[in-house]
Write a sequence for this structure.
């Protein structure tokens, strides 16, 4: 596959007259080796369909087209879509479906079939996009995303450690993630100010996965409450129902949110949901 070069990206942007948008996190990947590695990591799971959020000018898309039978690419910026079509056509690629869609606001135009999510996510909205896709599109079984290094660290920090966060613990209910590579700003055009990291994750299976919606919502709410006051003891951070459930599962209310392991959050969420169901 012929990689998409920085020269090609700059030429397309000039021709369209497009100044990359900060709000849309338009930092285009100019390193074909990294793009190829991302596609290869995603393909390891043996899935046939890749979903890409924010294909931009195709740096990653061209490799996904090579490694997967089918690619569905959701791009929010309509102005990029004709140029993306040209990048693909110039390489004889015909297995990519480009959809003009905002992955945060629009209904997701995706079929419910086992797929991989692969994306170089926009910096500012990357966390919201990831949470939405992971939680709403349960058929995305493998996730390979490039995100800001600091966000990557939050995603992979295990519950019960000092570095963990509400967002990371929430995501950990659904996926099991690790960092596969650290990526410098120089491989993007325009260059961002911070480093990125490549995160690889697989969907969790039972018993840790919380698939029942009431339990899931109760768990997420308890995590949010716990971390809103992460320096305080749980007895000051959680609501009355949550504290009763904490007692029922035998977790000491003098502990702090950051000390709870993932299975403790899940047990707490289940107890809250059960007590609600009993009322
Ligand atoms: C970091 S760039 C990556 C572009 C390309 N994949 C690459 O690696 O060069 C992020 C891309 O996401 C698009 N984008 C931003 N917000 C989006 C959203 N909410 N839904 C879909 N695409 C979005 C941007 O227009 C841009 O193309």
């Amino acid at each position: 596959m012929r990689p998409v070069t920085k020269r090609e990206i700059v030429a397309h942007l000039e021709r369209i007259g497009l100044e990359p948008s900060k709000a849309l996190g338009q930092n285009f990947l100019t390193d074909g080796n990294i793009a190829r590695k991302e596609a290869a990591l995603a393909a390891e799971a043996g899935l046939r369909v890749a979903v890409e959020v924010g294909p931009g000018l195709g740096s990653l898309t061209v490799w996904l087209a090579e490694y997967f039978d089918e690619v569905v690419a959701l791009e929010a910026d309509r102005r990029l879509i004709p140029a993306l079509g040209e990048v693909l056509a110039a390489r004889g690629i015909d297995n990519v479906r480009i959809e003009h869609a905002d992955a945060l606001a629009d209904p997701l135009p995706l079929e419910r079939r086992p797929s991989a999510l692969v994306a170089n996510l926009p910096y500012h909205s990357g966390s919201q996009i990831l949470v939405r896709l992971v939680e709403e599109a349960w058929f995305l079984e493998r996730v390979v995303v490039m995100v800001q290094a600091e966000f990557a660290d939050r995603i992979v920090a295990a519950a019960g450690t000092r570095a963990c966060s509400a967002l990371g613990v929430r995501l950990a209910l659904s996926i099991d993630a690790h960092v596969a590579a650290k990526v410098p700003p120089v491989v993007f055009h325009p260059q961002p100010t911070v480093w990125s990291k490549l995160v690889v994750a697989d969907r969790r299976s039972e018993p840790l996965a919380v698939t029942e919606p009431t339990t899931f919502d109760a768990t997420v709410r308890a995590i949010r409450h716990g971390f809103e006051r992460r320096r305080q003891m749980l007895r000051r951070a959680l609501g009355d129902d949550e504290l009763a459930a904490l007692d029922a599962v035998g977790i000491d209310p003098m502990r702090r949110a950051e000390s709870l392991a993932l299975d403790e959050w899940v047990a707490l969420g289940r107890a809250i949901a059960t007590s609600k169901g009993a009322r």
Notes: The chain has two domains: 6-203, 213-277. Residues 24-29, 53-56, 59-60, 74-77, 80, 102-104, 120, 122, 125, 129 surround S-adenosylmethionine (CB under 6 Å).
